[in-house]
Amino acid sequence: MDLGKGNPPDSDQAAAAPHLPFATPSENPAAASATGIEGLDFILHGGLPRSRPTLLRGGPGTGKTVFALTILCHGLINGEPGVLVTFDEAPQALLHHGKVLGLDLSQYTAQGKVRILDMRPIRGDVVTGETFELTAVLARIRHALEQTGAQRLVIDGIDGMEEAFIGTGTGLRNELSRIFDWLRECGRTTLITAGERTDFSRQYGVEDYVADCVIELKQELNNRSMSRLLRVIKKRGGGHESNEFPFLVDHEGIFVLPVTGTKLRSCAATQRISTGISGLDRMLGGQGPYLGGTLMYSGQSGTGKTTFAAHFAHAAFLRGENVLYVSFEEGAAELVRNQSSIGLDLNGCPNPGGTHPGKLLLKPILAAELGGEEHLLRVMRLVQRHQPSVVILDPVSALGNKLKEMNSKALMLRLLHMLKNQGVTTVITELLGDGSNEVSSLDISSMIDVWVKLIRREREGRLHRLLSVVKARGMATADYVSEFTLSGNGVTIQGGR
User: Fold this and answer.
1) In the 8-state DSSP scheme, what is residue 491?
2) pTM score over 0.85
3) What is the mean pLDDT of residues 64-82?
4) Measured between alpha carbons, how far is 248 from 377 in angstroms, rounded to an integer?
């Protein structure tokens, strides 16, 4: 069955495509073919080997077909015709999968820029005597390549050919070298997907040796939370990053952030900005923290951490800045309602008074829903998409044990690095347990520029709220503990010296 083409995203959507400043390692661009997945291109030092075969392997649900469709559509959008050969799913199913992800191949098939070949084995059609007619299959693919002028070729589920060899006297392993040699002769940038069936690598592992590039996808389950990981096993003729990299696959497509993709290259800003609380600004040298720094409010329940963070967000909003407020505990409507009780309007409407109206984007994310890595990747994607100048994470401690996992903690540190490298001012809140002795358990204080500790004391039948500045890099800070109150006018810090 031959089908045709896919719809590119509309121009507005393409123009608004998110962009993170990954500095792709230097490599000859003529030797690489961009995948359209920015993080993956960084990992591959430019992209897939041009005019050579790449093997993408992984178990069920790891995202092989999504990667394949994304890479094919990126070529189509950039004027590179393609051919998609399926040995696994029906063409109509692939078209449906692509449309769900915003990759509508039907338009491209109508224009003749892509063909989909249904090569699912039907043994009665492909077996003559005891010989599998591989030559006929390759000839059909070559005809489609020549007819479309394709520069990209995707072969999805090549291990689906295995059934056709049962009882034929030969085997898939014996033919893989022949297939890969034929692909090199064709001179197209080729992506081949294969599953990780039981003992498949042991039985047919020759594909790792004959492919010019091998990418492995896998799933890991830790504490009942699933993470997807990507690793480049080899890439002939060029370098690549060697670590395992977490990635997302959902209705918005693929998001890969390289673990080594955020080098410490931030600039030291000299501009100071207000926390939105004048008394706290006074305690931070009179002008507030530096632009692009990281500020943490930590304290027990009821000390006002969210209120302090909301003041910061509101002040930035009124300055005309874009603010991303990620709440791990409260829904957007609940957060707006609660902060309105102290006189803060967090409804996110454009600020009509500023020269450059700001926007406040509230994004609640249920902390118990996902693993720590997936949570942090979603935050990174929100930052990439909305390009805020201020990011609030409230409270990051809601991720609990997820951040104690080594990978999640490392990812949290890299998130803070990434935000700082982009000049984003970051505010995080941390809930301290009643038995914590007011000691932080996040173990990320090395990345914090300003640390404000909020304290709750009960004496003489009254609740007293106190604050102190634990650290504030590069600025003179108050060495005293101040009492503060919460009222309909917000936070008021008493006294001051």
Assistant:
1) E
2) no
3) 94
4) 7
How many C-beta atoms lie closer than 10 Å to residue 349's C-beta?
A: 12
What pLDDT, on the 0 to 100 scale, is given for residue 365?
81
Mean pLDDT of 235-251: 85
Closest CA to 245 of 107, 71, 43: 43
Using an 8 Å Cβ cutoff, are 449 and 417 in contact?
Answer: no
User: Cβ contacts of residue 58 below 8 Å, gap of 6+?
Assistant: 64, 195, 196, 216, 217, 218
Instruction: With H, G, I as helix, E, B as strand and everything else as coil, classify residue 70.
Output: helix
| pLDDT, tens digit (0-9, with 9 covering 90-100), for 94-111 | 998 888 888 888 889 889
Work out the end-to-end distance of the chain between its first and last CA atoms, rounded to an integer number of angstroms.
80
> What mean pLDDT do residues 70-75 have?
94
Residue 48 identity (one-letter amino acid): L
By C-alpha distance, which of 31, 194, 37, 183 is closest to 103? 37
Q: Cα(21)–Cα(262) distance, rounded to whole angstroms?
A: 9
| 3-state DSSP of the chain | CEECCCECCCHHHHHCCCCCCCCCCCCCHHHEECCCCHHHHHHCCCCEECCCEEEEEECCCCCHHHHHHHHHHHHHHCCCCEEEEECCCCHHHHHHHHHHCCCECHHHHHCCCEEEEECCCCHHHHEECCEECHHHHHHHHHHHHHHHCCCEEEEECHHHHHHHHCCCCCCHHHHHHHHHHHHHHHCCEEEEEECCCCCHHHHHCHHHHHCCEEEEEEEEEECCEEEEEEEEEEECCCCCCCCCEEEEEECCEEEECCCCCCCCCCCCCCCECCCCCHHHHHHCCCCCCECCCEEEEEECCCCCHHHHHHHHHHHHHHCCCEEEEEECCCCHHHHHHHHHCCCCCCCCCCCCCCCCCCEEEEEECCCCCCCHHHHHHHHHHHHHHHCCCEEEEECHHHHHHHHHCHHHHHHHHHHHHHHHHCCCEEEEEEECCCCCCCCCCCCCHHHCCEEEEEEEEEECCEEEEEEEEEEECCCCCCCCCEEEEEECCEEEECCCC
Query: Quick check: 2 pLDDT over 60?
Result: no
- Measure the CA–CA gap between 258 and 256, rounded to whole angstroms: 6
Collect all residues with Cβ–Cβ distance below 8 Å to 261 and sequence separation of at least 6: 20, 22, 23, 39, 42, 43
C-alpha–C-alpha distance, residues 441 and 285, integer Å: 27
pLDDT at 24 over 70: no
Residue linked to tokens 């649900």: 61
